[in-house]
């Protein structure tokens, strides 16, 4: 499995400095300030305040992407065909090459090498993805999610009825 982030997309200084999807909002603001100091004539406004409908930073992108990935797993067939299984595995391989946060993408590629997608069923895929997400949670200091509740979170709603 080819597992390389497209370094060409990231290797220019300017691009990596301005890759908003690669850093959290605070880091991005600090990078912007540094860039503005280097490049902006004195007196120009600082645009570092957060606005609505702006490009996603790393955490926004991550949160929204997890929503899509877990929901895809939630609606994956219970009994997938061989083609569906292969398509889903290929999806994750391709996804990991193009995920715009390159540090995140590299880590995901490593994880996919160690534990490839388990595509046997909806349950198997959702549990696999939950473990992948928990590995990242652990690495970045976020609480682990109870994988026995993954279908409540992403498909059925909580058993206490709070999503009904
Ligand atoms: C593929 C990928 C790789 C990433 N790699 C990195 C990285 O290397 N470094 C980095 O700083 N950030 C990374 N991120 C971003 C990071 O995972 C979070 O998305 C980001 O920190 C925002 O966190 P959050 O608190 O909004 O919750 P998120 O982690 O985005 O989770 C969103 C929601 O998913 C649910 N959830 C949490 N854990 C699980 C689970 N195990 N299974 C099912 N549901 C769960 C919770 O309800 C949570 O509110 C990555 C994101 C993705 C999609």
From TrEMBL:
Query: What are the GO MF terms of this UniProt record?
Result: flavin adenine dinucleotide binding; flavin-dependent sulfhydryl oxidase activity
What main location does UniProt list?
Answer: mitochondrion
Q: What is this protein called?
A: Sulfhydryl oxidase
Query: What reaction gets catalysed by this protein?
Result: 2 R'C(R)SH + O2 = R'C(R)S-S(R)CR' + H2O2
The answer to whether UniProt assigns keyword Oxidoreductase to this entry is yes
Q: Look up the record and name the cofactor or cofactors this protein needs.
A: FAD
Q: What Enzyme Commission number(s) apply to this enzyme?
A: 1.8.3.2
**Top-rank taxon, per record:** Eukaryota
């Amino acid at each position: 499995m080819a597992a390389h982030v497209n370094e060409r997309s990231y290797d220019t200084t300017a691009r990596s400095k301005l890759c908003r999807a690669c850093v959290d909002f605070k880091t991005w603001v600090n990078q912007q300030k540094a860039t503005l100091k280097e490049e902006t004539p004195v007196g120009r406004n600082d645009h570092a305040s957060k606005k609505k409908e702006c490009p996603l930073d790393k955490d926004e992108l991550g949160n929204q992407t997890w929503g899509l990935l877990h929901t895809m797993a939630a609606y994956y067939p219970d009994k997938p065909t061989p083609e569906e299984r292969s398509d889903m595995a290929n999806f994750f391989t391709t996804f990991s090459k193009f995920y715009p946060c390159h540090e995140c993408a590299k880590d995901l590629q490593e994880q996919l090498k160690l534990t490839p997608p388990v595509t046997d069923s909806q349950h198997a895929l959702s549990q696999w993805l939950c473990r992948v997400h928990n590995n990242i949670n652990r690495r970045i200091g976020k609480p682990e999610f109870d994988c026995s509740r993954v279908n409540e979170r992403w498909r059925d709603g909580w058993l206490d009825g709070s999503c009904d």
